[in-house]
């Protein structure tokens, strides 16, 4: 049986791991190579849900060239968790939504966008990959809500810590120099990690995900479909 920290072997994938059941998470899909897309398909992936804003969905000069035919059979959905250019949210999410302390604000400002992600998860075919840019916080917001939905809060901290460490390791070797983040040595990483885990715990403790989803339009059939995907 797969462990929740299992890392799929998809060539080029960054910060990729199994969450539960039929759900994976990862960083930018543009990091996958042609072979990586083919390997994801072979593993049963049929749906990729990209949580980034449309303007972020662009190839960098350091990304691999990909044969678009390798994506055949995989539905790619862009379902942002926020509204780009929203002045009030952007005043709080500085330089962007990169910390669990911002999750409550993201949910409060954009409940319909969050609910839309869950609609897509319920309707998806095959195994699902959720991703944002780093695979840490926008992905972490949705993954944390999913884990609360199926009473697997025991995986909250392991999932978030693995995501934080995964993208931190990538910053150490990446040819692309991130404008706001860089690799942190272990002694410098532990403080931010513990602070983030505290904020994550407070967020999840404040929320009943099933009630939130019902309030924002998820049907009982959809809720059951999501739970089955995570079984």
From TrEMBL:
- Classification via Pfam families: Y_phosphatase3 (PF13350)
Q: Which domain of life is it from?
A: Bacteria
Protein's UniProt name: Protein tyrosine/serine phosphatase
Q: Which SUPFAM superfamilies does the annotation name?
A: (Phosphotyrosine protein) phosphatases II
Residue span(s) of domain Tyrosine specific protein phosphatases: 108-147
Lineage, highest ranks first: Bacteria, Bacillati, Actinomycetota, Actinomycetes, Micrococcales
């Amino acid at each position: 049986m797969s462990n929740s920290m299992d890392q799929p072997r998809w060539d080029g994938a960054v910060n990729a791991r199994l969450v539960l059941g039929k759900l994976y998470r990862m960083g930018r899909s543009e990091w996958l190579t042609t072979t990586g897309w083919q390997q994801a398909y072979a593993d049963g992936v049929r749906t990729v849900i990209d949580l980034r804003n449309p303007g972020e969905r662009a190839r960098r000069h350091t990304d691999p060239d990909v044969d678009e035919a390798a994506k055949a059979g995989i539905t790619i959905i862009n379902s942002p968790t926020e509204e780009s250019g929203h002045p009030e949210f952007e005043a709080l999410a500085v330089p962007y939504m990169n910390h669990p302390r911002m999750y409550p604000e993201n949910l409060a400002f954009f409940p319909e966008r969050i609910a839309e992600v869950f609609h897509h998860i319920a309707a998806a075919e095959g195994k699902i990959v959720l991703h944002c840019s780093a695979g840490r916080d926008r992905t972490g917001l949705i993954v944390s809500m999913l884990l609360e939905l199926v009473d697997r809060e025991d995986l909250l901290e392991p999932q978030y810590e693995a995501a934080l460490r995964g993208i931190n390791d990538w910053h150490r070797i990446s040819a692309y120099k991130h404008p706001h983040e860089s690799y942190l040595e272990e002694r410098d990483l532990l403080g931010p990690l513990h602070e983030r885990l505290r904020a994550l715990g407070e967020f999840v403790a404040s929320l009943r995900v099933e009630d939130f989803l019902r309030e924002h339009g998820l049907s009982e059939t959809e809720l059951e479909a999501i739970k089955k995907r995570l079984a």
